[in-house]
Specification:
about 500 residues; 14 helices; 20 strands; about 25% strand
């Protein structure tokens, strides 16, 4: 029997002993009066060695224990922080003290007693009564050495949260970022709505979908890859400023920036264009940083970055020309573009279409250098089937992507509201699909019918919550900011 099984067997023995005493090792509730952090703040000025004369009831997980003859010290951690628990053979009955010293790291414990500060300056609870709230049958990993396996941290996130302060900090920060985003949008007059996750057709983005089957309806359905086409239906219906924060799903590879299941905010604003959405984006992100971090200045992957508006605007054509010396407007076909790439001996993966090859030039040569907040604007029509064309150049659309720290974290358009043009764009996408682009969009007849009822000029914006959280928490991988990232199945983790 290996060591972990021996430890589990010993804990099972303690569990049985507890039950034989007529005690419930998994009681239903515990009435606590304070959180650990509340006590730390209330008694921050309590002198060393002094009693507070205040009794408190706390509950949490035991994360450390030190037994010293007739005295025992436990570290108790709740959702707010840590506090020391002090028990002695004098305060507790002999049999109670024996049980107290048999508690294990990982057990959940409720304690009641006076608050005091030890002679070493540690705020503590002098235990007068304690209750086992949940017996842990498996030992926790050692705080540092036990969590060096990154995959273990992702597969068993609960262990990561128990032992890793940075994991808890990111989880809390993510929640605050989403809350701050909601507050900002609502202060701007946006209404939160919900649209279907299961869809008869997928659309609104260039991606492969996940496919499922509805038995009762005997029909194939898709997990949404974007919220866009349903949100636009609501704009057509008369809702003028709307947003949704929810899960989207794309059947793609996994990387430091990609997870098949991700969280996105999409908002739509009638009578606005992509210039308005740029202003909204820079104001929103800087306000979220100020609210969550207390400053618009952040550190991301060793880069000091100022999120204060205004952000730089840079045309896609100019950005690619500056970094690769290729003018995409002079290379109108895929063959021409590939010839220029080969002529300059650029190391870049070949793509099936002209638009995909342009996008690859952006990702390889431009994106890593966009450290300061930047909007890359004005994309080719082929890359943007849902965006409105620029009046002065019909080959380019009013679209932007925001970048911070060398990473794109959003997408926005002046939304196409001409149903004739939209149908032609969908047909062009279907031709691209026939040419080998599996991610090209498909024609959505129901959406086109809705669009033919009239949609006002509208600005749309999508922000990747996971990537924004990466930026604001200085996380190098998307797996750090998603509590349960998608992982390759493995049968030997237990």
């Amino acid at each position: 029997m290996d060591e972990s099984n021996l430890l589990r067997a010993e804990r099972l023995r303690k569990l049985e002993a507890w039950r034989q005493r007529g005690l419930d090792p998994y009681p239903r509730r515990f009435a606590r009066t304070h959180l650990a952090q509340q006590l730390q703040e209330l008694f921050r000025d309590l002198p060393v060695g002094a009693d507070s004369q205040t009794s408190a009831a706390l509950a949490g997980r035991i994360t450390a224990r030190r037994i010293m003859g007739g005295a025992a010290f436990l570290d108790l951690r709740d959702g707010s922080g840590r506090i020391q628990i002090y028990g002695t053979v004098d305060l507790l009955k002999p049999e109670e003290y024996e049980i107290f010293t048999q508690l294990d790291i990982g057990d959940f414990l409720g304690v009641e007693g006076l608050v005091f500060r030890t002679k070493k300056g540690e705020l503590s609870i002098r235990t007068e009564k304690f209750t086992l709230l949940a017996k842990a049958l498996r030992p926790l990993p050692e705080k540092w050495a036990g969590l060096q396996d990154v995959e273990l941290r992702y597969r068993q996130r609960y262990l990561d949260l128990i032992a890793n302060e940075s994991a808890r900090r990111i989880a809390l920060m993510r929640s605050r970022i989403v809350s701050a985003m909601r507050r900002f949008l609502e202060s701007e007059g946006f209404l939160e709505v919900e649209t279907p996750i299961l869809q008869p057709l997928y659309g609104g983005a260039t991606a492969k979908p996940f496919t499922t089957y509805h038995n009762a309806l005997e029909t194939t359905l898709y997990l949404r890859i974007s919220d866009e086409l349903y949100l636009k239906r609501l704009i057509i219906g008369g809702l003028e400023k709307i947003y949704e924060i929810g899960k989207d799903f794309r059947n793609e590879g996994i990387s430091a920036k990609h997870n098949p299941e991700f969280t996105q905010m999409e908002c739509y604003w009638t009578y606005a264009d992509y210039n308005d959405m740029m202003s909204l984006t820079e104001r929103m992100v800087s306000q979220i940083a100020k609210e969550v971090l207390g400053s618009t200045r952040i550190l991301y992957q060793e880069h000091e970055i100022d999120l204060s508006p205004p952000w730089r605007r840079l045309a896609l054509r100019e950005a690619i020309l500056a970094e690769s010396n290729i003018d995409i407007e002079r290379c109108s076909t895929l063959a021409d573009l590939r010839a220029e790439i080969q002529k300059r001996r650029l190391k870049i993966d070949p793509q099936p279409t002209w638009g995909k090859q342009v996008d690859e030039l952006l990702k390889v040569f431009v994106e890593p250098k966009l450290i300061e907040p930047t909007f890359i604007i004005d994309y080719p029509v082929e890359l943007s089937p849902l965006a409105k064309k620029k009046p002065q150049n019909p080959e380019v659309v009013e679209r932007f992507e925001p970048f911070i720290g060398g990473m794109e974290f959003g997408n926005a358009f002046s939304e196409l509201n001409d149903p004739i043009d939209q149908r032609e764009r969908f047909l062009a996408q279907e031709a691209m699909r026939s040419a080998g682009d599996e991610e090209a969009q498909i024609l959505d007849e129901d959406f086109l019918i809705a669009l033919e009822h009239g949609m006002p000029p509208t600005g749309g914006l999508g922000i990747g919550i996971d990537r924004l959280t990466m930026i604001l928490t200085d996380a190098p991988s998307i797996r750090e900011v998603i509590l349960f990232p998608t992982l390759r199945p493995r049968g030997d983790e237990m």
